[in-house]
Specification:
single chain; 36% strand; 17 strands; 5-stranded mixed β-sheet; 5-stranded antiparallel β-sheet; mainly beta
C-alpha cells in the first residue's frame, strides 16, 4: 500500500510536469528571422531584435492576418482588431551600453557610445534598415543636453519594451521633400533642450521624416554619408507633396 501511494504521487508529479511543459510551449512564439523560440511576453526577439508579428483578427468572420496594410477585413469589410493606439514614447531597460547612429542603419553618422547600461530609456519610434534589422529612436543625455539617437533593438531587455506601442516610421521613399533656411539651427532633437548638431548642412534640400511639437526631423546627405537632425518647422519650405 505504501509503495502504491509513492508511485501514485510520482505519477501525479510527472503528469503535472508534462502539463506545465505543454503550457510553456503554448506561451512562446518563433522568431520569423532567426527561428529561435521566444517568450510570449516579448514583443521582439531578444536574440536578433526582429519584431514579433502581430496577428490581427476579424471579430465577424474570424479572418486573421499579420499584414499591417489591412485595416479592414478583405472578406467581410469589418475593422480588424486590435487597433493599437501608439504612445508618444515608451521606456525600455538598456541591457548594454548603447552604440548609436544619427539614423536607422550603420550607414548613418556615428553618434558615439552612451554608458547607460541598466537605465530606463525613452523610446520614440522604430525603423527598419535594408536587412530588416530594427532600430529604435531613443533619448539620451550628454553634457547636460539631450540627444535623439538610433540604436539596435536587441540592446534592450525584451521583457521591458512593448514594441506594439512604439510608432513605426514610414518608408523614406515616401517622405516629403523640403528646403531649409540658410540660417536654420540643426539640433539633435525637437527643441532647445537638445544639443546643437555638430554637422552643418551644405545642401538645403532634405527629406522630412516626421513633425513633432513644431520641430521637423530631416534627412540629408553630407560627404556621401546620410544624416538626420531636427530644425524648427518655420525654417523649412515644402517643395513636394510626396
Amino acid at each position: 500500500m505504501r509503495f502504491r501511494r509513492i508511485w501514485a504521487c510520482l505519477a501525479v508529479c510527472v503528469l503535472l510536469g508534462m502539463l506545465s511543459v505543454a503550457v510553456a510551449d503554448e506561451a512562446t512564439w518563433q522568431c520569423p528571422v532567426c527561428a529561435k523560440t521566444c517568450s510570449a511576453s516579448y514583443s521582439f526577439c531578444p536574440y536578433c531584435g526582429a519584431a514579433r508579428e502581430t496577428v490581427r483578427t476579424c471579430a465577424n468572420c474570424g479572418f486573421q492576418t499579420t499584414d499591417a496594410q489591412y485595416t479592414y477585413c478583405p472578406q467581410c469589410g469589418e475593422a480588424l482588431t486590435p487597433a493599437v493606439q501608439k504612445a508618444s514614447y515608451v521606456t525600455g531597460r538598456a541591457q548594454q551600453d548603447l552604440a548609436t547612429r544619427s539614423g536607422p542603419s550603420t550607414s548613418f553618422t556615428d553618434m558615439g557610445v552612451f554608458r547607460v547600461k541598466g537605465e530606463d530609456i525613452r523610446i520614440y519610434s522604430v525603423a527598419y534598415d535594408n536587412n530588416k534589422v530594427a532600430w529604435l529612436q531613443c533619448e539620451v543625455s550628454y553634457g547636460g543636453m539631450l540627444r535623439r539617437v538610433y540604436t539596435g533593438l536587441k540592446r534592450f531587455d525584451a521583457s521591458t519594451v512593448d514594441l506594439d506601442q512604439v510608432r513605426e516610421e514610414g518608408d523614406i521613399a515616401d517622405a516629403r521633400i523640403a528646403t531649409v533656411a540658410e540660417d536654420a539651427t540643426l539640433r539633435d532633437g525637437p527643441g532647445t533642450l537638445y544639443s546643437k548638431s555638430k554637422q552643418s548642412m551644405v545642401s538645403d534640400q532634405v527629406a522630412v521624416i516626421c513633425v513633432e511639437d513644431g520641430w521637423v526631423q530631416v534627412q540629408f546627405i553630407q560627404d556621401e554619408t546620410p544624416w538626420r537632425a531636427w530644425v524648427k518647422e518655420s525654417d523649412i519650405t515644402y517643395t513636394s507633396d510626396r
